[in-house]
Structure formats: C-alpha cells, structure tokens
Design a protein that fits this description.
By secondary structure, the protein is of the alpha/beta class. It folds into two domains: about 130 residues, Nucleotidyltransferase, domain 5 (2-Layer Sandwich), CATH 3.30.420.40; about 170 residues, Nucleotidyltransferase, domain 5 (2-Layer Sandwich). Helices cover about 35% and strands about 20% of the residues. Strand 11, helix 8 and strand 12 form a beta-alpha-beta unit.
C-alpha cells in the first residue's frame, strides 16, 4: 500500500500534540499527550509511541505512514537529539537521542527532529500567515519563548543545529533567573510563566490597588488574559509591560536578519488585542531608523496545534 501520510508531533512544555497529515497538508486525525509528567526520556518515548500507534490504528492508516516529523524544544535537526531542554523535565541537563529512540519504539519507522519553533515556522510559511514570505522570524509564546528564523526561504540552523534561540537573548540585564540558569532572558518575562511572574510581582508592589487577579490563589497567564478582557487595569498594565519588552527585543532581532515580518504563535499570542500595540510601539521606538515602520507584526492564522503539527510533518516527507 502506498505510504501517502506522515505524522507530525509538536512537543511543548505541557503537552505533545500529534497529528496524521496527508500530502495536501490536511490534519486528518490528532490527539494530545501530556508531556510534563515524565521523569525520564524512555518513559516519555514509550508513552508517545503508544499514543501514535493508537492514533494511526484508530484512523485506519496502518501501513500507510511514510515517517514521523517531530518539533521539540532544543531539538537538533542535524543529530536528531534533544539537548538540555529546561522546560522538559525528562530532557533537562541531558542529551537525548530522541529520533533514534522514537524510531526504535515505532518499529523502525523513520523519524526526523527539529526545534519546535522551527517546525512552527515551516508550518506557517507553508500554510499560514507567512505564506509567500522568504524572510521572517517566528516567535512562539508558550511555556517558554521559542523562535524560528527563516532567511531566503530557508530555516536557519547554524553549524550545530541550534541557531535561533532568541528566547534566551538577554532582555533585561541582571534580571530574573531563567529556567536555563541565566539572568534576564526574554523567556523569563514574555513566556506564559513569565507573564504569571510579572502578575505576582505587580500584586506585591501595588498592595493597595484592586485587581481581579487578587481572587486567584496561583495566578496564570490565562488568568491575566481573562482579567484584561474584563477590563482589569492591572492585567492590561501587565500585558503592556510584556509587549514593551517584546518590542525592544524585536528591534534587536530585526537588526540581525532584516525580516519582512515577525509572526507570533502559541498560547500567549491569543492575547493579541493587548500585546499588539505595545509591541509595535516599543519596536518602532527602539529599532534603527532604516527599519522603522517597515517590519510587520503578524499573528498566526493557523490553530495552535495545526501549525506545529504541519511544520513537523513536513520533515517526514523527505525521509
């Protein structure tokens, strides 16, 4: 039987989204596996393989899968390894031969791996808001802050496969400790976890000001978004602060690759009505004059799961 389908897997800090994709780029079936409850890589790989086998079987595509493409934090396109991914408990401070392990668990089915933000960039370039763009930067705002850099229509990997870790550029010198161990990383401020940290700091620094966020025992970025939608002043200020930091960092990124657009993707990007204005304002205040008002800020036009699944699956067609 002709192998007319591939599998795309997007591994994030909280979940792994899995989908079966056909040659037209349609996600025919998908499912989700919680990814942050495993303490060792083999347990996660075994659970993922079981999930994929069930998905393929239930969809009726046994024997029709050409290969598996995976997007993961700190995924190395060249080696197939996940190296020291701080937001994955089973890959923290470790070097995991992930593609090899998953291929073995799937009975020898070929597996290709890349960084999760690179996968999202490929998906967006092929099917979404970046369609037709040759030079853009994909920023994923989720548990962490990831990035995929596309120059001349090609994803930038660098000599070792790890190019494009813009979430770990320094946004604030001597700032918060990031999950990677450094201080002041963009991720420490502009990820979902970073927004929650900002909210806690704001509440502590403004004890006499009322906010809907005070009703939450453990504030999350989702709480901040819902409060902002309800008109909460504090929540709006938190997003303004977050957007301003993103905009300043975007100005630095523009100086590197002169993109036509910066595309935002991920759970936190849902708050675009509160992030867009401070991002653009701060970016244009900070960027070199030759790029002022030239670089578009776009939000993904694909569903959160589809962009990364489609991008990861694209790797598998060449296996």
């Amino acid at each position: 039987m002709e192998q007319e389908h591939v599998v795309g897997v997007d591994i994030g800090g909280q979940t792994a989204k899995c989908g079966i994709v056909n040659a037209r780029g349609e996600v025919l079936a998908q499912t989700i596996l919680v990814s942050n409850t495993f303490s060792d890589a083999q347990s996660f790989v075994d659970a993922l393989a079981s999930t994929l086998k069930l998905l393929i079987s239930d969809a009726g595509f046994e024997g029709q899968i050409r290969g598996i493409g995976v997007g993961a934090p700190n995924g190395n396109f060249y080696t197939g390894e996940i190296k020291d991914a701080p937001n994955l408990p089973w890959a923290r401070s470790k070097n995991i031969p992930f593609a090899k392990m998953l291929s073995e668990a799937m009975g020898g089915l070929p597996v290709a791996l890349t960084n999760d933000a690179n996968a999202a960039a490929v998906g967006e370039m092929t099917y979404g808001a970046a369609r037709g763009l040759k030079d853009f930067i994909m920023i994923t705002l989720g548990t962490g802050v990831g990035s995929g850099i596309v120059i001349g229509g090609n994803v930038l990997y660098g000599h070792d496969g790890f190019a494009g870790e813009l979430g770990h550029t320094i946004a604030i010198r001597g700032g918060r400790t990031c999950g990677c161990g450094r201080q002041g990383c963009l991720e420490a401020y502009c990820s979902a976890i970073g927004v929650a940290r900002t909210a806690v700091e704001w509440l502590e620094q403004h004890p006499d000001e009322s906010s809907l966020l005070r009703l939450r025992e453990n504030v999350t970025s989702k709480d901040v978004y819902e409060a902002a939608k309800a008109g909460d002043k504090a929540a709006k200020e938190i997003f303004d602060y977050t957007g301003s930091i993103l905009g300043r960092s975007f100005a630095d990124f523009i100086a590197f690759s002169a993109p036509e657009a910066i595309v935002l993707f991920g759970g936190l990007a849902r708050a675009k009505e509160f992030l867009y204005e401070p991002i653009v304002r701060s970016m244009n205040e900070s960027v070199l004059p030759i790029w002022k008002d030239k670089v578009k800020v776009l939000f993904s036009s694909l569903s959160e799961s589809d962009a990364a699944i489609l991008g990861a699956s694209a790797l598998a067609w060449n296996l």
